[in-house]
Amino acid sequence: MTIDERIEYLMQSIESHDRQIGELTESIATLTGSSATLVRVTNEDATSIRTLARIAEAHEARIAGLEGGQQQQH
Predict the structure, then answer these.
(1) What pTM value is reported for the model?
(2) What are the residue boundaries of the structural domains of the chain, listed by start?
(3) What are the mean pLDDT values of the chain's consecutive 10-residue runs (74 residues total)?
(4) Cα(11)–Cα(19) distance, rounded to whole angstroms?
(5) Cα–Cα distance between 68 and 41 in angstroms, integer?
(6) Which one in 12, 35, 50, 60 has a CA-CA gap of 20 to 30 Å to 67?
(7) Distances (CA, A) of 4 to 7, 8, 11, 55, 69
(8) For residue 28, which of 20, 39, 17 has the smallest C-alpha distance?
(9) Distance CA 58, CA 47 (A)
(10) What value, to the nearest 5°, has the Cα angle with vertex 11 and ends 6 and 12?
């Protein structure tokens, strides 16, 4: 392999690595965006679950109050 062939091979190798770094950078950006979306949706779900838990507690208290009131009448 001549020095010119080696230099050409090295230049092609460097260009290939540059392309791969660019592709990896794009992939990382996509994954970061996906992770941010997942965190946002998870936080929204957690808020909804807490709201539903409060509603269920209120309903349980109301039912317990109604049942307690009926038992006292008998």
Answers:
(1) 0.58
(2) 31-74
(3) 95 97 96 96 98 98 88 54
(4) 12
(5) 40
(6) 50
(7) 5, 6, 10, 76, 97
(8) 20
(9) 17
(10) 100
